């Protein structure tokens, strides 16, 4: 069988291309692993590392990814709910929104437990952990408030919610602007 690549340069380029494709498919996992290694190099204790990893997963479970702001995430979520309610009807979409609220409230409880645990942590990265856990609790409370507001306003009318969204009159828009 003839060689797949004619020279070393082609072999190296193909390997680099393969690595880039792998990284793109697994970017989020690679970032999380990199953060773990960085925290370990800083001297964070095992407990602190585990708490920080839990914090990362809370953010991911709520729908946040590196890059978009909380404003962008909530705006996108609101627009998707309006679109779905227009297409399927609010009574069909409402149970989905209620489920999202219940999930967010569960994550808020986990974030509060994490904040309490972070108060007991010591060593390197604990100040960062404490500040990040407090920020997560605040963000998740705002997320729950936003979903609760969706339910309240859309029960009246989809148009009312959409009008509030367009004119920056929603709770989360006032807080994040």
Average pLDDT? 88
Total beta strand runs: 0
Which structural category do the helix and sheet elements fall into? mainly alpha
Describe the global form. Answer: flat
Largest sheet: none
Helix content: over 70%
Order of helices and strands: HHHHHHHH
- The rounded Rg comes to 22 Å
Low-confidence stretches at least 5 residues in length (pLDDT < 50)?
A: none
Q: Please state the oligomeric state of the protein chains shown.
A: single chain
Strand fraction equals under 5%
Number of helices: 8
Distance between the termini: 64 Å
Report what the structure shows.
By secondary structure, the chain is an all-alpha fold. The chain contains eight helices and no strands. The chain has helices spanning 8-25, 27-42, 46-62, 70-88, 90-120, 126-156, 158-166, 171-176. Helix 2 (27-42) runs antiparallel to helix 3 (46-62) and helix 6 (126-156) crosses helix 7 (158-166). The radius of gyration is 22 Å and the shape is flat. The protein starts with 7 loop residues before the first helix and ends with a helix.
Topology (elements, then pairings):
Elements: H1 8-25, H2 27-42, H3 46-62, H4 70-88, H5 90-120, H6 126-156, H7 158-166, H8 171-176
Helix pairs in contact: 2-3, 3-5, 3-6, 4-5, 4-7, 5-6, 6-7
Features:
83% helix, 177 residues, mainly alpha, flat
Summarize the structure.
The chain is mainly alpha-helical and 177 residues long.
């Amino acid at each position: 069988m003839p060689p797949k690549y004619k020279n070393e340069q082609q072999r190296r380029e193909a390997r680099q291309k393969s690595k880039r494709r792998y990284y793109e498919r697994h970017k989020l996992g690679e970032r999380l692993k990199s953060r773990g290694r960085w925290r370990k190099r800083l001297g964070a204790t095992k407990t602190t590392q585990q708490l920080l990893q839990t914090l990362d997963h809370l953010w991911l479970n709520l729908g946040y990814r590196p890059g978009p702001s909380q404003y962008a995430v909530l705006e996108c979520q609101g627009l998707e709910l309006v679109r779905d309610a227009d297409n399927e009807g609010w009574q069909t979409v409402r149970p989905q929104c209620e489920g999202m609220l219940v999930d967010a409230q569960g994550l808020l409880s986990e974030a509060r437990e994490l904040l309490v645990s972070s108060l007991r942590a010591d060593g390197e990265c604990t100040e960062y952990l404490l500040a990040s856990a407090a920020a997560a609790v605040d963000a998740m409370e705002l997320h729950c408030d936003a979903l609760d507001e969706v339910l309240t306003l859309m029960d009246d009318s989809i148009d009312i919610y959409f009008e509030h969204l367009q004119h920056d009159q929603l709770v989360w828009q006032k807080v994040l602007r």
